[in-house]
User: Fold this.
Amino acid sequence: MVEISTTTVGRSYGRLEGRAKVTGRVDYIYNLRLPSMLHAKVYRSPVAHGRIKSINIEEAVALPGVHMVVTGEDVKTVLPEPYYGPAFHDQPILALDKVRHFGEPVAAILASDPHIAERAARLIVVDYEELPSVYDEVEALTSEAIVHEELKPAGTFADLKHLSGRRDTNIALDFHLRLGDAEKAFSEAVHVFENTFRTQQTMHTPFEPMVAIADVTHDRATIHSSTQSPSFVRYELSRLLGWPESNVRVRTGHLGGGFGAKVYVKVEALALALSMLAHRPVRVAQTMEEQFYTITKHPSTFRIRSAVDGEGRIVGRKCEVWWNGGAYADIGPRVTQKSGFTAAGPYDIENIDIDSFALYTNRPPAGALRGFGIPQLVWAYESHTDVIARELGIDPVEFRKRNILRDGRPQAVGTVVKDAKFETVLDDTARHLGWGRSFDRGKGTKRRGRGIAIGFKASISPTTSSAIVSVNADGSVIIYCSTVDMGQGSDTAMAQIAAEVLDIPLERIRVVNPDTDVTPYDMSTLGSRSTYHMGHAVQLAAADAKVKLVAMAEEVGMPEGSNAPLPELFIKKFGMRAGTIVGTANYKPEYAPTDPETGLSPNATPFWMIGATGAEVEVDTETGDFTIMRMINVCDAGKPINPAVVETQLSGAAVMQLGFTTTERMIFENGQLTNPSLADYKVPGIFDMPVQMENVMIEAEQHDGPFGAKGAGESGTFGVSPAVANAIEDAVGVRVLTLPITAEAIFRALRAKDGVPLAES
Amino acid sequence: MSRRTINFTLNDRPVTTDIGTHQNLTEVLQENFGLFGARESCGQGLCGCCTVLVDGAAVTSCLSLAAFVDGSKIQTIEGLADGDKLSLEQEAFIETGALQCGYCTPGFILMTKQLLDEIPDPDEDQIKHYLSGNLCRCGTYPEILQAVRLASAKRKAG
Assistant:
């Protein structure tokens, strides 16, 4: 290992946009207004599954101040095939023929005054023929209610093509992995364990709601959007339009949060269609409530079975995971596959079966949410791991260490793990929690316990990032890249990387906000991929610029080592302060596709993310209420580019997952969402913090990462939920199998354990 | 929708503006004055992203009808810095890295200002009590607690 010595990288600089954020001057797209712009408000379906018999817009159109009312049929006059989606072209811009979930957009009203548009939306009358619905992911497998008559995979992914035209099924994608001989392992096992775990539907609730302003002229479409995926939005809108990508411009500012809600197309296609119909700029700005109907996190059911030998080694594991993707696939099929292959956990198990299913149901769509399915999987496999350890009477940390994956061994998908410090992360979590040392277990009705959980994730692969680094004649530098800074600090990290390569101060570097007319391609800002992928691209582009600067210096007789300032070099070459040196790079890591039969790949990911949590809880046995006394979050982030920003990411991810663990849950009655607001859907506030929280980045290095770094934005989410459940069992001896973990669930379990179960409510 | 003219002091300047009586203060600050530091997110006065100070007290401007601020003194995040010189609270949030996406940041800073105006040296419970009406979806609470403590120390040091 070569020791990398750096000056700018590896130091905790404040965020470049910090001053703009504390003065309220950040360029969120939600704040943008354009001349002659119209506001759009959306009328949404009150039924979960129904055929549209008629739409009456008369009263809405007649309201003074209403510019136009638009339905799905109107959209077809400008975009004949108005379906979009990254994996399936299944989502209509406005509902056509039928609605498939509560809150689906059916019509849009345009007005100069958003209040008038909102009032008009309430005047639309739609007659539905209600259809049988399915809401549960397991029932969706066999349900007679069919969400989509025919599957329509996008051409983007080669491995989905075989699904084209498949009918009468709710299975959008099934992924299977077969390693070794699981049947044999189970038949020879000394112990066999089985549990079924479930997770609830939750929402990202970015505080800057989803928003897009489209401005379309006869051959030019400009979209201002709070998107995490400017390149994909350009691709998808140009496909809908049948235009070259150069005629479509997608730009964004800093985002007021994203967390996966703003990946791929969300409100952009609607804004595009409305601007084409109105011949004016149109703003589609969601409310917090509307976000709940747009994209969510998959509810899931995971049946996990383990075969264990007499020495406490897991010799076989069977995983069946059902992902509730809601009415439109979004990126769910990728969650099913790319996260699916890690379902057996970070353990060295030689015989594994994984069956992972993406299912359509009549719920609001589910997609990516900080972890891309991993937190749902870790919830199951790390709860299950503790169940096994306790049954066998083995210390849960010791049991994990006996089975943990180590560098040089293949993960279930067949890829040998490298630079993945599973054991160190586990050891550090245990050490910081004080595992193995005695602690106050409480007394009377207040009981304390401790739990640990560790999870991991592969990077979504293969993906490409491109960057341009240009050096101005005064020696200042501009980075052009399409990585979106939504609060994770990517602008600062990219600037640090370029500063390091070019050996110039950070203050002389500017990072341009993504704008597809200006910034080159990037797959998307998601899955903790930017530091590694875009970090590489920026590093290579800066190095390319440096090579050109050295050549220019030689040309004008200022050889390397002369140490002449950059402005002098430009003056020597161009006779005045003029000219630009441009470095460029495309970066795509190596990848081997998974085998369609076995699901195996020798190179499924460029790097592994590892995160663990240790928790100490205090449970009130009279009420089931619990307090998290301590929470330790540990991750392997390689060598962080900006340690303070990475630590905040680790901590913030854990806090977010704490919400998904304890309080957040979308509640449905007959398919209707009853709590689409922060009043009834409880995200963590300052009083919900653990009494103590510690965040630890272990000493590590990703050998091929930019300056040894790798992604870390999601790692803090992995272990939180099962660590809390494991600590609760340690405290009071009851096991919770379903998220969220509520006082009621614990109290019911305590009563059941005491032989006096409560009646179901 | 009826309209009326209101007068108030906005960041130390007297202003007169025409409003709809149905409009909330967030919307009037944005559409009539171009001030976007107070921003509507949850729309129910729960997240605190729309916080402004009305006569020195933090209020959620998304729940305040603009008509009712007639005659008041309003301070927004844009009025906190003295030209290029940031307020001590703003400095503290930057120095402790107490922000991620930044959408909630102005609300937390204004709430911190009100807290420190009333309790110069707050303990942890007092800090949490004052900040419990502001939410940060990025989960930056530990850093925000540090920022408030640092701001308190900075104010004491003068």
